[in-house]
Amino acid sequence: xxxxxxxxxxxxxxxxxxxxxxxxxxxxxxxxxxxxxxxxxxxxxxxxxxxxxxxxxxxxxxxxxxxxxxxxxxxxxxxxxxxxxxxxxxxxxxxxxxxxxxxxxxxxxxxxxxxxxxxxxxxxxxxxxxxxxxxxxxxxxxxxxxxxxxxxxxxxxxxxxxxxxxxxxxxxxxxxxxxxxxxxxxxxxxxxxxxxxxxxxxxxxxxxxxxxxxxxxxxxxxxxxxxxxxxxxxxxxxxxxxxxxxxxxxxxxxxxxxxxxxxxxxxxxxxxxxxxxxxxx
Amino acid sequence: xxxxxxxxxxxxxxxxxxxxxxxxxxxxxxxxxxxxxxxxxxxxxxxxxxxxxxxxxxxxxxxxxxxxxxxxxxxxxxxxxxxxxxxxxxxxxxxxxxxxxxxxxxx
Lengths: 281, 107
Known about the structure:
The structure holds two protein chains of two kinds.
Chain A: H1 4-14, H2 22-41, H3 46-54, H4 60-70, H5 74-82, H6 94-112, H7 114-143, H8 173-181, E1 192-199, E2 206-213, H9 217-221, E3 243-244, H10 248-253, E4 269-272, E5 275-279
Chain B: H1 3-6, H2 10-18, E1 23-24, H3 25-35, H4 44-56, E2 60-65, E3 73-78, H5 80-104
């Protein structure tokens, strides 16, 4: 028994248009099978009956017409997708009508089963929130460049030892001095240390985040001050004046005592731990 | 034969044959051939193209039917819209033929 469906399918694929509609394939196969059977009943040998059946597939242009006639139109496709009854649709408003139908359908579903709708909205909310959070981290860590000039040239030194091969981010003053002298390896080396500072000169005591840095820290990071200056090399030395650089938000928002000008502080000292520091600039 | 005259008539002939009852494509092709004594023979592809166009227009409906010991076939039947369309086409055809007859008749 001949596989008329495979023959029809291969022929239709050969004339182009991709995978043919199964209805066309099966209907042509049934037709060829009937022609073949009738031919044999009329006394034709198998080959002649088969040739008569295959003659159906010998007009590629007409076969293309069949496929075009079965191909769903845009309107038919949209109706099929939306599972809506066929309604007259004007060509220009097709998209908006479909959208309006979808919105109405969604609202009806919401009213019919509010618990399900709330669960769906909650799941969506959670999903969007998680995705946003993950993207924020990926963006900050991987995608967004560091806010320093030549950020790809900045390295972070770690001290390692046999007991601690993973290393730790610390260096003694002697080791830092050694790093600074290795100018063949690095252009410059700066040190920093984060600290919490107690500020008690405002209307209420505050604990501030701060840091102690070497004088070239700002140069290495490409940072400049809005007012005043950064640290000098002399201020790196032991027993020199303790100089503080305030962040702009800090001195703009804290009600420091000042008389007229924002530079003339009535008390130019900031309590930092147990030490007094001189405000600069 | 009648190549020009045949154009556009396949759909009307199919509608007329389906008005007698549901039929499949092979049967329709054979009936057209037999009843016209071979003078209105359509290529099979044209028969199915016409059927699909009529189905898309909502004038006929196709449905697969399987009979014991036979390959399943797709039977087509007229829809109410198809019946109305056939009546309209019959009327138009008669009017057209009448008009042509009047012109062709020797004065």
